[in-house]
Design a protein that fits this description.
mainly beta; YmcC-like fold; 12 strands
Length: 194
């Protein structure tokens, strides 16, 4: 069994938080519409308040992961998981964790590469991938692959990001098996009136 860790699933999605004054209602409305203006935000969009629900499979074991987006300003935000918060930054040349490690890097072209989160090189393997997950069928997606890394056994992280959504699929492969996280649903939470 590979043990698909929550921070691996959405660590791929998330990055850095800014400190500041408490939000006013006007600030909150603007934050919901915050945009960095960076081209990569089309593939890695995080809208304040959205929830992402992933179904996970690690060997024969199934599970789920839910993450909530909190956008702190146009270039900073965070993804709140049940056990941690990942922070992100929209930088001039990509999307990074607050540590500076890239999740996606420009240009979005096959072959673009950078040092990965797990110690291996990441490369863009496709910019026109199609994928089907429980949330639907998507085209025009970007697929990244990170192989190798500092810790044995060597793992392969294949992540698919789709326009207007973000990460829809993560597949982690190792000599001992495979783990997956597939997007089941995303969007604003439903408020049921009392």
């Amino acid at each position: 069994m590979i043990m698909l860790k929550r921070h691996h699933v959405l660590g791929v999605l998330v990055l850095a938080s800014a400190c500041g004054e408490p939000a006013t209602p006007t600030d909150a409305a603007n934050k919901n519409k915050a945009t960095s203006g960076q081209a990569l935000e089309r593939i890695f969009p995080l809208e304040d308040g959205n929830l992402y629900h992933y179904v996970t499979k690690d060997g024969d074991e199934g599970g789920m992961l839910v993450a909530k987006v909190k956008r702190t300003d146009a270039t900073h935000g965070q993804l709140q998981l049940s056990n941690k918060t990942n922070k992100f930054v929209y930088a001039a040349d990509g999307v990074t964790y607050d540590t500076g490690v890239y999740i996606l890097k420009a240009p979005l072209e096959v072959g673009t590469s950078w040092p990965g989160e797990h110690g291996g090189p990441v490369r863009i393997g496709a910019v026109d991938a199609s994928v089907e997950v429980p949330a639907g069928k998507y085209t025009g997606c970007v697929r990244t692959v990170e192989e190798g890394g500092a810790l044995p056994p060597a793992k392969r992280y294949e992540t698919t990001y789709c326009p207007g959504i973000g990460m829809v699929l993560l597949v982690v492969s190792a000599p001992v098996g495979q783990a997956r996280a597939e997007l089941k649903s995303y969007g604003k939470p439903v408020v049921i009136p009392q």
